[in-house]
Structure formats: C-alpha cells, structure tokens
Batch of 3 targets.
Target 1
Amino acid sequence: MEILMSIVIGALFASSVYLMLSKSLLRIIIGTGLLSHGAHLLIITMGGLKRGAAPLLGEKAASYVDPLPQALILTAIVISFGVTALFLVLAYRAYQELGTDNMDEMRGNEAND
Amino acid sequence: MINLLVLPLLIPLLTAALLIFLAKSLKAQRILSVISAIGTLTASIILLLTVKKNGIQTVNVGSWDAPFGITLVSDTLSALLVTTSSLITLCVILYSIRSIGTARERFYYYPVVQFLLVGVNGAFTTGDIFNLFVFFEVMLMSSYVLIVIGGTRIQLRESIKYILVNVISSALFVIAVAMLYSVVGSLNMADISQRIAEIGHLPILTVIAVLFLIVFGLKGAIFPLYFWLPGSYYAPPVPILALFGSLLTKVGVYSILRSYSLFFYHDQAFTHELLGILAIITIIVGCIGAIAYWDVKKIVIYNIIIAVGVLVFGISVATEETYKGTVFYTIHDMIVKAALFLLIGVMIKITGTSDLRKMGGLMKKYPLLGWTFLVASFALAGIPPLSGFVGKLLIVRGGLAEGEYVGSLVVLLSSLVVLYSVIKIFMNGFWRAPKDYPGEENQPVMSLWVPGAILVLASAFYGVGAELMYPIISQATDALVHPAIYIDAVLKE
C-alpha cells in the first residue's frame, strides 16, 4: 500500500512540476494545487497506513492508527485551500490589470514598470 | 502569570479582528492600531523581564501535556525577538499613518499588519514544528495581502511571483515535517531533539535537515534561494518594505538557528559546512547587488541579503561566541534595517523618486534627517560604538577561533561594502547642490522622520548599552549551546 501511495505521490509531484514550469499562469496555479495534494498524501502515508483500529476510546484493539497525521493534513488542506483561492483571485486581477497571463511578459525590468 | 507569553500573540490577533469591523473609520483604526502596538510592546517587554528572572516560560495550549499538545515556549531568544518585532511594528504603524494613503488604509491595511505581527511573534514563540508551519502561513497570508495592497501594476506582477515561491516552499515545509515525523514520531521540538539524540545519527536526518534548510532558506533569502527577494520587496510601498525586510527574513534565519542548534546538530561536518559555504556566497552576492544599483530601495534590499549571510555564517560556526554574535546581530539588524527603510522612505517622499542620481542636497533643508541617516548607516556597517560592531566582532572572533578564516574575512570585507553602499546614498542624496522638488512642502517630513529616529535611537542605545544587554544575550545563547536547558524547560512535568 505504501509503495502504491509513493508512486501516486511521485506522479503528482512530477505533473505539478511540469505544470509549474509552463508559461500560462492558470497552469501554474493548478500545478501548485497538485503539489499540495502530493504533500498531503505524503503526510498521511508517513503516519503509516492501516496499522490498526480507529483511535477512539472504547475501541478494543491491539494497535491503533496514529491520529496525528490526519490532524496535520486537515490543517494543511485548509491552508492550501485558502492560498489557492487567493492566488486565483490575484491571477484574475493581474490579468485584468496587465492584460496577459503569460509569465514571459511579466518579467521585471525598467521598461515594464 | 503563566499565560503571559500568549499576550504578544493575542493582543494583535484580537485587535486585527476588531479593526476589520472598523474599516470605515480611519481615525478609530489608526488610534486603535497604535494603542494595540504599544500594548503588544509592553506585554513583550514584561515577558522578556519575566523570562530573564524566572527562566524559560512555557504554555501547553489546551492543557495537553508537553510532547502531545502544542507547546508555546518563550526562552530569552524568542522573547528578545518578539520585543524587537513589536517595537518595529509600532514604529512602522506610526510611519504608515502619514504615508500609506487613505485608499490602502480603507482596504484593511492596519488589520493585516496586526495579523502579520501575530504570525511573526507566533513563529518566534512556538515550540512545535507543525505549529511553526501554521504561524509561517499566518505570516505569509498577511504578507501576500500587504505586497499587493493598492493593486498597482508592479505590485500585481511581483506578488504573483512572491506567492508562487512561497506556496512551493510551504509545500516543501509540509513534506519536510512529514518526513521528520515519520522518522522521529514527534512534532514537539524539544521532544524531537531528545529522540534524535536517542536514536543517534541516521543519514536520512541529514536529508531532512537540508530539506528544512531549503524551506527556511527560501524565507530567509540565503544564496541560491534569494532570487525572488530583490524583485518582490521592491514592489510594495516603503512601510510594508520595512516590515518585510526587518521581520520576514529574520523569521527564516531564526528558524534555521533554532532547528540547527536544537536538533540538527549531529552531522555538523556536512550540514554546518554547507551552511557556511552558502553564507559566504550569500554575502558576496548581496555585496555585488548593493554596489551595483543606483536605486535607494534596491541598495538597502541587497543589504538585507548581506546581513542574512552574516547571520547564517554565525550559525554555521556554531560555537558559543558566534551564537552570541548571531543573536546580538539579529536584533541589531532588525532595528537598523527598519530604521534605514523608514529614513529612505522619507527621502523618497521628499524627492518623489528612488533614483539616487535624481536626488541631492537634502542636507541643507533636512539636517536632522541627514544626521539620523548617517548614524543608521554607521550602525549598519558596524562602526563602534554603534550596535553593528559588537555582533560582527563576536561573529568574526568566533569564526577565527574555529579556523574559519575565509568566512571571517568575507564578513569583515562585507562591512566595507556595506559602508560604501550606504555612504553612496548619503553622499548623493544629502550632499551635492540642493535641488527643488515639486510638492516637497506638502510632505509631513517631521512626523515621518520621528518613527525612523526612534529606531535609530533604539539602535544607538543597543550599541552603547551593549554591556547592559550582554547578560540577556548570553542567557539567550545558553539554550542554543545546551539544548538540554530548552528540553528540560519544555518537558519538565
């Protein structure tokens, strides 16, 4: 199971890097979304998958799943959700103002200020 | 008062929430912001005195015991940094009142500054590695808003790059924390340190240490990862630049200092050597930038990078003396960088340009501004008895004692470059023939000068009163040199 997850995470990272290296702003933002998905999957995998019963009082079991990675992942998801929303709004606003979504044309130089 | 160390987080947080509702009334916003900043400063000074007297203060949030819940830890180092950040934020708010413009004030400038302070103070105070990530995000979210507030073309263009860089570094932070957790099984920094000491040195820990270095290095702008800083910091107006330049990069440096002294100290031959090499290149790159530009903002921005290099060099040598120097120099650099940014902000306001070649002759009309700027420049370059001297002396002496001759020499030579770059501003901006600038009579020069002057004064006292500060600095260093002090304080029950 962990091996499978690792492959999925690797695929997510690879596609996010590919997307982020493109010039279109929208593709870059989708890339950051995939990157954070990969990171979240990594957290859950690092805690160990299917190692025991649910960590609840009253559950009688020899071993329990570590609940901490799930708490972490929740926090991280909320944060990346907020950042992505802000990023999308900003990209739209920048598109309106600058008239382009091509990163090549957003270089900082004196003629462009 | 056991909850004292929560106050520097709680006051700005509640103020920010309150200020959002007062968006319509600028006067109420300004008054409340200043009062709250003074309150935060007072609370952090009381905290600093308490920590000095009673040792490290901890709060287990929600009364979950130390290794399991989130712990807030205030040792002398973090209390010092919290105090400095609160002082700087107060001065920046005072400066903003007359300079940031009503449009930005209406669009939640003051609440966001308070949120930024929550993030910065939280990052300095937390004792939990995942909580550090959360406070980083609070800080970054506020900085995203601050960098784009006003919505000018250059701000929009640069903010996209800034956000992109930081989103990637946040993802890396999550990855690094996940890997550390899978190896160590704890998130409490004291507990991590203890467990790493128990399991001994594993090669994967070096990988994780470098991963953390990439994350914190992106925030702190050390050599290969500094590329975003000059462009992004150039975009926002001066008060925001002062906040960013003095606080945000130092949070990155603090995180490197904390993690590399508390738990990644087992493979110094690799990690600290790497840190040392990067530090030297960082200084050199910063020096090249500081000399190259004729734009006052750019010159001081590149000085940030030089200072980060000096600090990281201090961390890389990792002896008691260089730690002392690093702590001393961090505080100095935060204060004096903020002062310099605010003072060049006044120059830009008067002349209406940030290009040095179009300035000149300010000394005739604004002698006070000129002299404070000169004192700030000398402090930045480290001329005794001003505050930069003591920190650099300790770092260089510690470096030489450890045989790090190249690094120590680069630090020394960088002082000359720093001096040259800021004196270039002084000579071209304040000397030469006076010019007339359209609209300069309407600028509130005196009230803009005061916050900068307060910071210069603080920096001068910090330098002249180094003898008084020394016991506090050595107390702050103790916990860095002997992680056991920190661990015992957190896990005592």
Target 2
Amino acid sequence: MSADTNAVSLKFGVVVFPGSNCEQDVVHALHLLGHEANYVWHQDTELACYDAIVLPGGFSYGDYLRCGAVARFSPVMESVIAYANAGRPVIGICNGFQILTEAKLLAGALLQNRNLKFICEPASLIVEKSVCKWLDPKLAGSVLEVPINHNEGNYFCDAKTLAELKENGQIVLRYRQAANGSLDNIAGICNRGGNVFGLMPHPERVCDFATGSTDGRAFFSYIFRYILEIASNTKNNLNKNGSLNSDDLNSDDNNIIGNVEVAQ
Amino acid sequence: MKNYKIYVTAKEGIFNPAGATAATALGQLGYDGVNNVRVGKFIELQTKDDVQRQTVTEMCEKLLANPVIEDFRIEEE
C-alpha cells in the first residue's frame, strides 16, 4: 500500500494512557499519510522532539470518577500543557478531547450522552469557519463523514463561554443532526490560538481506503503549514535577535526547527 | 481518623439524564408525586486527623468534582 504523498513529513507523538485504545489506529493513519509517529507513555515527559501531539481515544483509567479526570494528572500532562501553551499543536480525539477539557486546555466539559446510550455510528460533521490550525480554512462549510464512538460526548459549557467560543471562532465542528445532546450540536472546539483542538469523532478511523472513506485525512494533513509557520517565525526571531526571547512561541525548547522534513 | 462525606451533583441548570430517566421510571411505577430526580455521586474519605476541611475542598476542586459541571458539598463526621 502506498503512502499518501505529503509535502511534509511530520513527527507525531501519540500519548498512551493506561486504558487508551485508539493509539494504534492513530499511528496507522499517520503512517498512511507519510508521517512518523511514536508512542509516548503517560509517564514520559519529553515532548520537545515532536512536531505535534495526539491524545487518542479510549477509556483512560477506566473512565473512573469522570472521563479524563485521572489522566489529566498523569506526568505527561504537565508537558502537554506547557507544549500547548507554547503555541505548539495538540489534538485530542474522543477521550483525548475529554482529557483536554479536564486539563483546562479547552473550555467546557463532556457530559453523558443525553439518551444514556453508548453511541457508535457514522456522523456527518459540518466544518465551521474557525481559527483552528488543524483544518484547511477552505473546508469551512463542507461536510465530512467521520464516525463517533462514545458514552460521554455531550458537550456543555456555560452561556458566557459559549458566547466567547462563537465570538472567537473556536467552534470547529458541528453535528449536522443532533447526535448526543451536545450544546449547539458542537462536535469539536479549539482554544483561542487554534493550536489545541479537541473533537469527539474519530478521524483516524476514516483515513484508510479499506475503511470506506478517507474524510479523516483532512485532520492530519494540513497542520504542517502551521508547524512550518511557527518554525519559520522562530528562525526569523533567531536571525533578528541572535537568541530566543521569552515571548517566543517555544521558549521552553529550541528544538522546533529540527523536526520538519520537507519531502522531494 | 476523620471521615468526610462528599456529595457531587450536576450543577443547577445542567440536564441530568440519569435523574430524568429515574424520574420517568418512578412515574411509571405509580409514584406520581416525584417532581425531579438528580443522580450524583457520593464519595467517602477516611483521612488522618490533621487533614482539614479546606484540604478536602481543594481535593474536590482539583479532582473529585469538575466545577464546570458539578457542585459538591462536604460533610465532616
């Protein structure tokens, strides 16, 4: 099987918590798209060598207490928070999205589905016009078919937060038809900077032709532009000032330029 | 040793599907006087004597409850 030809091959870190179960699907999808992907055990804290971080789906810590509540305190999460706050790209899928809200990297919370049922079915997602760096802005208004597979996907936030999400273009995906009781049919949101993106649907499951659709590829094949952009900004700042200053995106590490490989 | 009892409930205004389902079921059983049911969590903590209520509040805010969607109430025995 030949890999999709990408302009740029990235190195992804895929975090594995006890109870994660979609990490292999994510790595398979990333390999298909020509990217490199390594598993990052939740006890590890070294993320600087990755171009982007994925928190995959699953049932971390058995979903005990609340989904993602315990995983949020895994050692790796302090590094993920620093990485995200430095402006670098993080995507959380399903349980990963729940963990990002528990870690307060994304606003709101995921409640139990309104019908009290575990939902596993295809979903039509409307791509909203947003500041999200993970999706091509040209996709705004289009519909992607991506499956959902969750018990707690019912997005909730207070009215003030919802108004801010709308105002700042942080709502990235909506279900075309009500799926789980989510406020405003929200399926995915990002942070203000657009670098941290959380969604309940599973794009990694629709990247391989063998699964009948490749709509999921859109979620992993655009972020390189942002990575190149921050790499080039860092380089420019280095050239201008001779050294990084504390305002730079990645003041915690100097490693960002090294990872991006431009293919022929 | 101290015993703390912690009650975690959905915040006011947040739809509680488990409670709503239980309310419907109670109605079907003929208990037509039930106006509202809210299903939450009950957590018991056994702690050393020097663990103060304020520390338990911190535990709730950080981990045991999610202030975005849940309220909590602590009782000390």
Target 3
Amino acid sequence: MRTIDITSQSVRDLNQALHDQAPECTEREWKVLNPAGKHNIACGLDQNLSVDIMGHTGYFCGGMNKKAHLVIHGNAGQGVGENMMSGSIRVKGDASQAAGATAHGGLLVIEGNAGARCGISMKGVDIVVKGNVGHMSCFMGQAGHLVVCGDAGDALGDSLYEVQIFVKGNVKSLGADCIEKEMRAEHLQTLKELFNRSGIDEEPEAFKRYGSARNLYNFKVDNASAY
Amino acid sequence: MCGIVGLYLKNPALGPKLGALFEPMLIAMTERGPDSAGFAIYGDEVPEHWIKLTLRHPDPHFDWEALAERAKTELSAQLSWFQNANVAVFKLEADEVSARDWFAEHAKDVLILSVGRSIEILKEVGLPIEISERFSLSGMQGTHIIGHTRMATESAVTMAGSHPFSTGMDLCLVHNGSLSNHNRLRENLRREGISFETENDSEVAAGYLTWRLREGDSLKQALESALTDLDGFFTFTIGTRDGFAVIRDPIACKPAVLAETDDYVAMASEYQALTSLPGIENAKVWEPEPATVYAWERASV
Amino acid sequence: MTDINIKPGMRESATFDRNTIAEIQRAAETGIYDIRGFGAKRKVPHFDDLLFLGASMSRYPLEGYREKCNTSVTLGTRFAKKPIVIETPVTIAGMSFGALSANAKEALGRGASAVGTSTTTGDGGMTPEERGQSSKLVYQYLPSRYGMNPDDLRKADAIEVVLGQGAKPGGGGMLLGQKITDRVAMMRTLPKGVDQRSACRHPDWTGPDDLAIKIQELREITDWLVPIYIKVGATRTYYDVKLAVKAGADVIVVDGMQGGTAATQDVFIEHVGIPTLAAIPQAVQALQEMGMHRKVQLIVSGGIRNGADVAKCMALGADAVAIGTAALIALGCNHPKWQSEYEKIGSAAGFYDDYHEGKDPAGISTQDPDLMQRLDPIEGGRRIANYLRVLTLEAQTLARACGKNDLRHLEPEDLVALTVEAAAMARVPLAGTQWIPGQSF
C-alpha cells in the first residue's frame, strides 16, 4: 500500500506516480489523502490498480479510467469518470453533474445522488445510482445501462440512442424520444447482474425500464417539433 | 466566467470570524477568476435614516477628510467615516438619492461601490490573495459575505467590471456564466431609471433585480421573474441586508455547491472552496437544482 | 447552368433570384432545412482583396531559390514538453473519418507527412490508417467524443479541443444515415444508418473557467507532453482568443466563416461567423495585448487556397494556416473528369457540395466501398504533397520579394488593400493611401 497526501504532494505528482504503473505494476494498492476537492485526481490511469481517495474530489476524478478501481470516500465533482473505458469507480457520497459523461465501459457506482446530465452521451458504461439523478440524465445516451434506485429529474433520456435505463422511483418527465418499455426476463437478469456487480441490494422487479422510441433515428418531417 | 463564494452565518457568535472564515474560500477560487476579485460584506449596520456608502478613488492619497467635511456641511448631515486602502466608508444621516446626487456632482472621480445600511463592497483588479490582503479581509466582522473572482469574458478587465455589482440599497449580485440578452435588457432598464456604469452582463442582472424590487417584488418573486427575462447561463448569488440567495438558470451548466450546518450556509462554485470551513465534513452538502430559488433570511429588524 | 433561354425583357429579381426561388420551393416540398457540405459560398471580403508591397528601392528583395527563406514553425512552446515542429506552416485541418473515406484520410496523412506538416483527426476518432500514415497527427477532442479514447489520446502529437468551427460556430454536427456504415457506426457506438446528431456543447464542461480545468485534465492524462490547441469558429474572436489564452491553450486555431464542413444547415454556413480576413487582426490584437503573440501560436483556416493566401495570413500575424476544402479539391473533389457522374446526382463539377449524402463521385466524402476505390491513397497522398509544396513555394516567393528570410517576418505593413471593406477588416491601408478605415483618418 502506497499513500500519497495531496497536502504535501501535488496532483501532478500523484498522477505521474499512478501513470508510472502502466507499463509494469509494482504497487497495486494506493491511498490518496486530503483530496480537498482538487481537480483531475487519478485521471488517465491505465493499470489494474486499486485507489482509495479519502475525501471529496473536484472535476474529472478518474477521467478516462482504464482497468483501475477507484473508491471516492466522499463527494465527487463534475464529470467523475468521464469517458471511462473499463475498471470501476465507486462514489461513496454524491456526484456532481455529468457523472460518467461519454464513458465507454466499466462500472460507475454512486451511492448518494447524482446531479444533472448523469450519463450524458454515455457509450457503453454501466452506471448504478443508489439515490436520485438530476435533469437531462442520459441525454443522447448511446450504449450501456443507467440504473437509478431513487427518482429521475426532468427530461430523462432525451434524444436517446440505445442505452437501457432502469428507474425505481418517480421520473419527473421523459425527454424527447424516450419511452417506458416492457420489462422482460432478460432485463430482470441484466439488472440482477448489475446489482451483483455493484454490491447494491435491490429487487429488479421494483424497477421500470425506459428506452428509445427510435422515432428520431431518421428525419421525418412530422417529428420536426421534437428537434 | 468566474468563481463565486458566499457565507451566511446562522450562529451570530461566528460574526467576529467572518472575514477569517471567508478569506480562504475566496482564494480557493483563484484559478476560476485570475483577473479581479471582490466581496460584499454585511454588518456594522447604521441606524434607520442613515446610510453607508463605500467609495473608491483611484489615488490612494486622496483627501477623504476634506471630502467628508464638505459632505457634512453641504448635506448638513451627521457623518463618520473610515478608510481602507483606497476605499472609504462614509456613514451619514441622509437618503440614498440625495447622497448619490451630491457625490455625483461634487466628487466626480469618486466611484460609489455600494449604498445601503449594512453593505460594504471592496473590489479591485488583481489576484484574490492580493485583494484580500489589501483590504485586510481576514480581520473583518459581519453577518454574511459574498465574493467573486473574475475571468473577464467580453467586458474589459477593469475595476468597474469587477464584481460584486450593486445597483440598489444593500443589494449585490455575483455571477458565474454569460448572459445572452443583456444589451437590449440594459436599454429597457435604463428607460426605467436604472443606471449602469459598465457594459458588463452581470451588472444588468443586478440592475434587473433592483428594478423588480423597486416595483414591489419580494426577492423570491424578483428571482423567479429573472428566470424568464434573463437569457443565457448563470449561477447567481445575491446578497441583501438580511440574507442571501442562490439561483441557477434552467439548464444549470455553471457549477454551484451549497453546504449547511447549524452555524452557517455556504455557497461556492466548487467544493474545494468549502474545505476550510469548520464542520464541513458533517455539513449537508448539495447542488442547487436548476431554476430554483434558495434563500436564507433573518427576520428584519 | 445555361442562360440560353433568357431573352431581353425577362428580368430576374435580385431579391428573389433563381437560387432563392429554388430554395423556397424545396423547403415547401420537404419541410426540412437544406443540409449540405462545403463552406460559405457567398462573396465576402477575402485575401484576394489584399496585395503585397514587394521590395524595390527602399527594401531589398531576396534571391529566389538561393537565399534562405525559412518556413518551419514550432507549435506548442508554451507548456508542452514536446512541441510540434512543422516544416511548412500549412497544416491539414480536422476532417472526420466518416465524413471522409478511409482512403481520403490516409491520403491526407501521406501528403502531410511527405512535406513534414501535420494532419488532424475529426469527429469520429482516429483510424489506424490515419495514425500510421501521419508523422504528426493532431487528435481532435469534440463535444460528441465519438471514438474518443485515452489510448489514441496518448498516441497523438497534439490535442485540439474543438469549441466550434467556422462553417457553424455555435452549432453541432450532423451526419446523415447514409454515411453511418458498419465501420463508422462501430467507431461511434451508434446504430447503423441513423442520422447522427452531434452536440454543440461539450458534455462535461461549459465556459472558459471550466475549460481551464478540462485542459489540465488532458495535460494530466498525457503527462504534459503534447501541445493543447483550442479551436474556435470566428465570431467574437478578440474575446475568444483572450479566453483561450487564460484557459491555458498552447495553440489557438481560428476558423473563419469560409471554412468547410461535412454537413450542416445551409442557413448556418452562410449566415453565421465572420470572414477569415476579419478574424486574424482581432486574434492577433488579443494575443499582443496579453504579451502572448508568437508565444501562444495562432493557426488560421477558412478559405485558404494558394500561397498568396498563406503569406497574407502570416503577414497579418498567424503562425500557420490549416486547409480543409482546398485539400479535398487537391485530392480530386469537384474534378471535371467526374462531370457525367455529378450530372447523374443532379450536380456538376465545380458545384458539388452534398458531402452529407455520401455519393461523392470522387470517392472522398463517402463511405461507399465502390466509390471509395476511386481514390488511391498513394496517388492522393502525392497530390496533397504536391499541392502543399506549391503553397509553400508561392508563400516563400512572396516573402522573398518582400525581403524576408522567414515567412513569419511578413508584417501587416507589407500589405495594402484593394477595397475599403478589406482595408477595414484586415486593418491595412487602402492601396496608395495611408487610410485604414476605423483606425486612422
């Protein structure tokens, strides 16, 4: 276990030390002390590391993560896990807006609430939020799964492509081209696996599924008002 | 484009430490706004029928004593004053209009930064740490305080373009974002008798609120109508004599974090500005919802 | 295109001319705005309206071909550990695989590499063909983040954060279903055949204060090695350039309204943005006021066609230029040899702009496997290299004539304007006078 304290070392020092593990891993377990809301902590990792961040983080924590497993023991700022490719990020507190934006893969678990635009333009990541998500979540979502155990804000899944969205609580409103869909056995199975992977205890049967009506996939003049 | 911070004390016992608690919050927002910085501090309230003006002169050796003597005689008002760097705070027994008119006529080089019973605004071009030190922020006392660090977008990096903006009694506003219809709105507000010193979009927002309050809106009503009339992206923090408020536009792209404990309510563009506050680990921390007014007010005295 | 049936007495309206009438009738029939590729087609003040003052008596010209005139430029000297050195200040602008065929992307890479300059990816990610053939490759970071991944980011020689482009400042992208083939769909994680709409803002940051943090993130991920460019469409250029500097850019790319696109609304292409000529002095003024001219490099694009355009950009203060549409034309876009093919799709050589339809007879702006074969990437690369060499030689010729041993020694004082409009925009005097409209009286 290697510990880096951000009060005595810079974020640059931390990230360089973590990046140095990419070609050859010599230290798998890392602990980051006093993150104090600083930006760009542990971004661009490319190794099967386990990183515990002991406090709140600023923008883009874990950005573009590959392979590494991050746990944020606090709240995460804007764009946590943006464009993540693989590995996992767990936020013990709340996440700010654009959590998991454009992420291609891996697992993002938010134990508190997520702000606006959670999973915006997501491209294959799995996101599980124990609390609520804010407005415009999953806007233009392309692929992957978004699971919300609480409520969803306005315009959920606006201009959606192929993300599957599951919500247990209330949806304030659905965005353009997003509709409720039938929950079939394979979806219950998908949810069950997501709960297993994220260590969250929920009953898949309590959730509703939302997805794209696919009406905006090709322009039709009668849909013009939805653009 | 900027960083904004605010601290409203629920526990009056913290009043003597307001400046000390607030200084690191302002400095933490340096990267969001390296061009200028400023703050509006509330406290040291003058009695009814008195007002307090924060005045600035570009010359640090300006003879405030002489100006005070003239004001006292010509306005035939009781007056006391003190100086802080190149800013002076005048307290006098007068109404807002006659005081503004007198200074406009007799002290053309003096810029009125604020008028009210409680507010003092201090702002300058430069880094937040320089501004804090220049005005000895860490020693200041009060009830609440709002600050701003500026990255100038379209209007110039000048003293006049610095925040906070005040256009009415005890009202001030700081802004992160960019308004897209402020020019036409400024013209309309000028016709309503609101005056503007700059081409800055944030000053228009402050002027808009002054106008709505003058027309009889409550602060909440004024902010709700701002959601309709102001276009663009904004997170505002607004100070009034009795409290402060936070509001974001309906799209809510510009960041904002609120924290509340039994002792205080704090607002910042980024969480890192809150980390120095006592008890922040156990505070309720959340992001304000879009198009929603958050306001804290103490009962008016 | 024939006027043979028009007789005296038949008068065409200047307001409702034939193009306008056709557009109103097209709109009424389809109910959708006109989407097309290419850049602005309207006439705007341009580099043709400027002339150089060659040396004669008061200045001494340099001997062509013998006396040295440097063309190499280093980009990204502000923060990057590994700045890019280009041998000619003409780079290839960002154009996506998806909008262009893989062969076209490869040809651009080959051509640029042959003359030691850089090429740029586009909205849709980096292809192995492109990376393999480009010795210096700039990786675009766009709002959609299609195909965006950290491996390619780390393979790039520079990163270009795109806020906008000259053809459509403030607008998102559009790639119609015909071009979303299996490979394009896979790279962009989209269902095959959908109309792909790209966002106009980045998903995880808004404004220059957030951009400063985003730039830091990109630097952190790439360990501060490569330069970070910021690309903006030319509108409020003076302010945008200042903010890009404040946000921490190494290089600023300003794309004027004549800059091309693969597909967007015609109304956007023709009615938004300012001419390239007008943008450069604004950008240079902003850099000079911040003490950053030449420290943060300025790349200019939008309607650059020949070495004179290159030299004029440099004289106005740019460090380099980028070409897009001109490079496609060099590859064979709108070539007369495809005239009969253009006619089949309702166009003509010299008029073709329906890049979004993916039916390009020249095999450039298409994903059709048969059409694509018409462009040989090796031959195409040779054409690009030839064209880049001509641009460089022409620019050098003009610089030598003005007595400069380096293209970057050209100055605004080497230029005069032919029209009052160009004089005002470029901030150089009207030829034969000392009058710069708006600056002096």
